[in-house]
Structures are given as structure tokens and as C-alpha cells.
């Protein structure tokens, strides 16, 4: 079904909450235009939500940050919620996470507040309907791109959301994720870091501290990046020509406190980089609440690539238009 066929609305927003965004796998091939990738901050949970509803890789679902969202179904739907526990309820009854659930017409789906983790992903069988902008429907609020409006807007009270035809029917895929696939977001996060080109320019003591300290997530964190609080890191590079910034890049500005760049990051930057988090470690960091502790562990490129390949193969997809594995 094309977007222009104007399918009937399937979900109505009763209360929007602080931040709910439509996210597909991201906007690729446009960074040379200064356009960032967007996409799910937690790729792991986003992928599982889609898989549990039988959607193909890349299908857009809702990224719900902090909770506060209230929705009512305009028709029967099959859904799955993965990621953070935001106290989701269906007609005031707790909704099981990490499995497919029936959402009946007229029932109210509510997200309260973070109980474990920060971001939940709501997928609907068939996928949400939105018109792509630069090849993607991923919402980037700062750049005013993507989403249901095409302008990157977060959900607002009164919005009507449409789902592709056939969405009420169960698609292929697992009905429930295995228990070992459920991350425990309440625990401190151990993050794999691939050393970068400038790592040799950091003082020896700083390198020791970087990998032997439990860092704390600062409250200055959003979809652009997450600042870590801990010992001051020193780098002998005084100036650096701006270069491309990848997902998970760990920049160290003059104050010595690392900033891990996420999906809505700028496309170039001039601070020295300690390295980059692996994609799945960047996803894990995106679920950390302020004050949570994280630790950096040096990892090799081959190990990170192997981990990503194994992850993608769970969803019977080892190649798409954006990633070749």
C-alpha cells in the first residue's frame, strides 16, 4: 500500500508524553549533505519489537522516551513492546514486554514512567504509515525531518496514526523473545569501545582511568549524545581539523569529560576521539538513566563485527540497503 492511498487511522493519541518519535532503521547516504542518520537510539530493542510483530527489518515503530504516552486503538491490532519498562498498561492491566500482544479496538495503551531503562519501542503488525523524506521516515527533531508529518515532529495530543493494511494479522516471526534476550537495564552497563585514531595522543594516566573507572551518566543526555562524568582525560592534541563523526564516537572536549555521540549527532566534529562504542554498546548506553554507572572495555573491530553479524542473523537478515554484513 502506498502512503497516498490514505489508509484509515488505527491509533489516536490521547496524551503525547515528553517524547515519542517514529523511527525506522535510519537515514543513510546523506551525511555529505550535513544530514544525520536518526533511527532508533536502541537498535537492539527496536529490532526485537519489529521481529515480534512479524515486521521486516527497517519497519518504523515508535520510540517512547520517559513514558507519559496514552493511546487508544481505533481497530484491532497486534503489537509488541520491547526495551525499557515504562510501566505500560492495557486498560489498566500490565502489558507483558518482549512478546506479541493483542490490542483490541477501544482499549487504552498507557506508558507511565521509567522503571528500568529509558526508551521503549512499540511496533505494530504491518508497520506505521508515513511518507519517507530523503529515503527514510526516521524523526530528527533538530533537522525537522521524518515522522508522521515529514517535519520530524514528536507525537502530539490528537494525532491520528495509520497502520499498513493487514497489520491486524499476525505475521511470521517469534511470538515471544527468549528470556536470555531481555536486557537488565537496571544493572551498570559494560560498553565495548573500539580504540580510535587519536587514542595514542591521550596521556597514559588518562588511558588507565578511561578503562578502569566506573563512569556516571550525566543528566545532559539526549538523542544527540551522552556525557559521562568521571576523571578528567587529557589529550595533547590542541587543534584538530573537523572530521566525520560515526555512531558511538567518544569525543573528549577540553573539559576532559567524554561525550558519546548517538543517532542525532552532528555529522562532523573537531574534538579528539578516544574511539567508538560498538553499535550494540551504543544501544545499551541509550537505555541508561542519569546517575547510572557505565564502564568502558577495549574491544577489537573483528569482535564487534562478529557480535553485530550474530545479532542481525537472529532476524534472518544479513544484508539490506544500508548495512552489508
UniProtKB/TrEMBL annotation:
It comes from the Bacteria. Coiled coil: none annotated. Gene3D superfamilies: Cyclophilin-like. Transmembrane segments: none annotated. Residues 32-315 form the Carboxyltransferase domain. Keywords: ATP-binding, Hydrolase, Nucleotide-binding. InterPro entries: CT_A_B, Cyclophilin-like_dom_sf, PxpC. This is Biotin-dependent carboxyltransferase family protein. It comes from Marinobacter xiaoshiensis.
Amino acid at each position: 500500500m502506498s502512503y497516498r492511498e490514505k489508509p484509515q487511522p488505527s491509533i489516536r493519541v490521547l496524551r503525547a508524553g515528553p517524547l515519542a518519535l517514529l523511527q525506522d532503521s535510519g537515514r543513510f547516504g546523506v551525511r555529505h549533505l550535513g544530514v544525520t542518520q536518526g533511527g532508533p537510539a536502541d537498535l537492539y530493542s527496536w529490532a526485537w519489537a519489529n521481529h515480534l510483530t512479524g515486521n521486516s527489518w527497517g519497519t518504523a515503530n515508535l520510540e517512547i522516551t520517559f513514558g507519559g504516552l496514552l493511546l487508544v486503538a481505533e481497530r484491532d491490532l497486534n503489537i509488541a513492546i520491547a526495551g525499557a519498562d515504562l510501566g505500560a498498561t492495557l486498560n489498566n492491566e500490565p502489558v507483558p514486554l518482549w512478546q506479541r500482544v493483542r490490542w483490541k479496538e477501544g482499549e487504552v495503551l498507557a506508558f507511565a514512567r521509567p522503571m528500568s531503562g529509558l526508551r521503549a519501542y512499540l511496533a505494530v503488525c504491518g508497520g506505521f504509515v508515513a511518507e519517507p523524506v530523503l529515503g527514510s521516515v526516521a524523526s530528527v527533531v533538530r533537522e525537522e525531518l521524518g515522522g508522521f508529518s515529514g517535519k520530524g515532529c514528536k507525537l502530539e495530543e490528537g494525532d491520528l496514526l495509520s497502520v499498513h493494511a493487514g497489520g491486524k494479522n499476525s505475521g511470521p516471526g517469534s511470538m515471544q523473545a527468549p528470556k536470555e534476550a531481555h536486557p537488565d537495564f537496571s544493572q551498570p552497563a559494560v560498553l565495548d569501545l573500539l580504540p580510535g585514531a587519536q587514542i595514542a595522543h591521550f596521556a597514559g594516566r588518562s588511558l588507565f582511568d578511561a578503562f578502569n573507572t566506573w563512569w556516571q551518566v550525566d543528566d545532559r543526555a539526549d538523542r544527540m549524545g551522552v556525557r559521562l562524568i568521571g576523571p578528567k582525560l587529557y589529550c595533547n592534541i590542541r587543534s584538530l581539523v573537523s572530521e566525520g563523526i560515526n555512531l558511538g564516537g567518544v569525543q573528549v572536549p577540553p573539559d576532559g569529560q567524554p561525550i558519546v555521540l548517538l543517532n542525532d549527532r552532528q555529522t562532523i566534529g573537531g574534538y579528539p576521539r578516544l574511539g567508538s562504542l560498538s553499535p550494540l554498546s551504543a544501544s545499551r548506553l541509550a537505555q541508561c538513566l542519569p546517575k547510572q554507572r557505565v564502564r568502558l572495555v577495549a574491544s577489537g573491530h573483528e569482535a564487534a563485527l562478529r557480535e553485530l553479524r550474530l545479532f542481525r542473523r537472529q532476524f534472518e537478515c544479513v544484508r539490506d540497503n544500508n548495512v552489508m554484513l
